Amino acid sequence: MASTLITALSFIVSAGCVGDRQVDRIAWEQSRIVDLTHSFGGDTIVWPTEQDFKLVVQHAEHTAAGYYYASNRIEMPEHGGTHVDAPIHFSEGKQTLDQIPLDGLIGSAVRIDVTEPCARDRGYRVTISDFEGWEAEHGRIPNHAIILLNTGFARFWPNRKDYLGTELRGQEGVKALHFPGLHQDAATWLVRERHVKALGIDTASIDYGQSTTFETHVALLSHNVPVFENLAKLQDLPAHGFDVIALPMKIAGGTGGPLRIIAVVPRFH
């Protein structure tokens, strides 16, 4: 696990201590946190066949006892907004959301910038050549890294038509989806050659919008590689040298769930 992440976690448990722990505090203060999560609200983008996110106000009043009390109920699909796909989502018998080990959700990360080809082609699928091109400039992708694909599509959030390629709902909406994703061959290469820990993207699916068989999901999830979708602010990250902490709601038996994901970036980046 990279030193930035160790520093961040050690600071959390050692704040206020002195001596060697003060070094952790200084290092933490020299890092910046990038929130890669879209807020959940009435405009949260969900799959065309899913119900929208709802925040139902149950209480928001001053009580007879003299104190103010507020409480809401939320209604949402597992796979809406910024979320994680658990391996069981596309692979029978694999890990459910609560079974994903924490070290599969936390670690060193790299950002692969594919904004240019995705701007030219909404149906672009990230290839092995894109990864080889990144490595030619930045060095080999480390084994067991978290890989984030920056397509540039987060800039369209929360406009459904621009982000998904359609405003249609139901099966007609699914057929009209048009956004970039990762080619299944590249996904298989990442699993076999780079032993990827987890993979994230700033679109609604790791498979491109026009996929009907979701081979990329299968290639990753069948090897217990969790997937993060609908990420935000990937453009604010360096190409490498940072860490990711991705903590979803721990839903027993879940196929996925809402995700709060952050990057810890040294300030010299």
Give a verbal description of the structure:
This protein is an alpha/beta fold and 269 residues long. Helices cover 25% and strands 25% of the residues. It has one domain (36-51, 77-266): 3-Layer(bba) Sandwich (Glucose Oxidase, domain 1), CATH 3.50.30. The chain has eight helices and twelve strands. The strands form three sheets. A seven-stranded mixed β-barrel has the order 4-10-9-7-5-11-12. It is globular and about 65 Å long.
Salient structural properties:
Glucose Oxidase, domain 1; globular; alpha/beta; 25% helix; single chain
CATH architecture annotation name: 3-Layer(bba) Sandwich
CATH-assigned homologous superfamily: Putative cyclase
Could you give the distance between the termini? 18 Å
Mean pLDDT: 92
Uncertain residue segments: 11-20
Tally of structural domains: 1
CATH class: Alpha Beta
Q: Provide the spatial order of strands within the biggest beta sheet.
A: 4-10-9-7-5-11-12
CATH domain fold name? Glucose Oxidase, domain 1
Task: Please give the share of residues in helix.
Answer: 10-25%
% residues in beta strands: 15-25%
Structural class: alpha/beta
The gyration radius over C-alpha positions equals: 20 Å
Number of DSSP helices? Answer: 8
Largest β-sheet summary: 7 strands, mixed, barrel
| Number of E-type strands | 12
